[in-house]
Design the sequence.
């Protein structure tokens, strides 16, 4: 097999990131004809087309997405090597590329990721938030090491991956002091006709809350629906309505948003997962996250 030409790979990587040969040529200070010729030679050596035309731009083929996933790792390591040679650190930096589902409360995401920051090795964390389907696609192409979510991997997604349960907990309800005084009768009946902020459709908690309301014969007034948990908490802080969040971060939310707890229930259980492409977790930072979640945050000592 021919030896991989890293100059050709670099041209491919730049075109893939820029979206067109013209933009890549400006960044590389080369003519479009030069890049086009080198790219064609690279595709010929690989035996597959890596791009297809989409209007004036180029989009990656399936083979191109695979090559890009490796190119990202190769050039990230190259950048790291430059930093190592320049700064001469005593040990190699551990890189953690983590995707956080936008339905996952941000305070909980931090609590889950915090143990990785305490590793003896120097950690470089790249944290991305987004929709589950987008994050899982990046996981499949090795752009992410792990995805943190409030639900296991959907069976409808054509991605090979494994859901590792980190733990579960009950749900607490929060609101401003003024709201709590206004709806002061016994919980959960205090939620009857009370303004309530509901998580968006992507959040696993949404369906559980609606089912629990039906079971309790409660009819809160839905004052808003939010895909982003931090935005929902901000509206709760402003007094727009009560909102629900995992009980393990109750103290954090009370301090951060200056709200009070209206009540708590274990009838609703939220589960949290680390999703990876490996059947068994191996990344040192992800292992630290999983162990701390099971033993400390959620109080479960179950094995990986």
Sequence:
């Amino acid at each position: 097999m021919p030896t991989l030409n890293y100059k050709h790979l670099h041209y491919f990587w730049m075109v893939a990131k820029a979206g067109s040969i013209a933009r890549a040529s400006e960044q590389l200070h080369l003519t479009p004809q030069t890049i086009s010729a080198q790219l064609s030679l690279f595709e010929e050596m690989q035996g597959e087309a890596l791009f297809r035309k989409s209007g004036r731009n180029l989009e990656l083929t399936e083979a191109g997405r695979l090559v890009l996933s490796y190119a990202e790792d190769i050039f990230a390591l190259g950048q790291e090597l430059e930093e190592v040679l320049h700064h001469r650190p005593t040990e190699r930096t551990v890189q953690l590329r983590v995707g956080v589902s936008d339905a996952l409360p941000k305070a909980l995401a931090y609590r889950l990721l915090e143990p990785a920051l305490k590793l003896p090795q120097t950690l470089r964390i790249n944290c991305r938030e987004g929709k589950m389907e987008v994050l899982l696609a990046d996981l499949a192409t090795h752009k992410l090491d792990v995805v943190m979510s409030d639900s296991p991997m959907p069976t409808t997604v054509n991605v090979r991956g494994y859901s590792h349960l980190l733990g579960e907990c009950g749900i607490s309800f929060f609101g401003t002091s003024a709201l709590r005084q206004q709806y002061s009768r016994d919980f959960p009946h205090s939620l009857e006709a009370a303004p309530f902020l509901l998580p968006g459709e992507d959040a696993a908690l949404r369906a559980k809350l609606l089912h629990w309301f039906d079971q309790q014969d409660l009819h809160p007034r839905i004052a808003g629906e939010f895909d982003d948990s931090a935005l929902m908490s901000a509206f709760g802080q402003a007094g727009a309505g009560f909102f629900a969040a995992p009980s393990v971060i109750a103290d954090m939310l009370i301090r951060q948003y200056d709200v009070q707890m209206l009540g708590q229930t274990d009838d609703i259980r939220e589960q949290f997962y680390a999703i990876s492409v490996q059947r068994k977790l191996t990344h040192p930072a992800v292992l630290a996250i999983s162990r701390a979640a099971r033993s400390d945050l959620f109080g479960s000592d179950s094995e990986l």
Q: What stands out?
A: The first helix runs from residue 6 to 18. Confidence is low (pLDDT under 50) at residues 300-304.
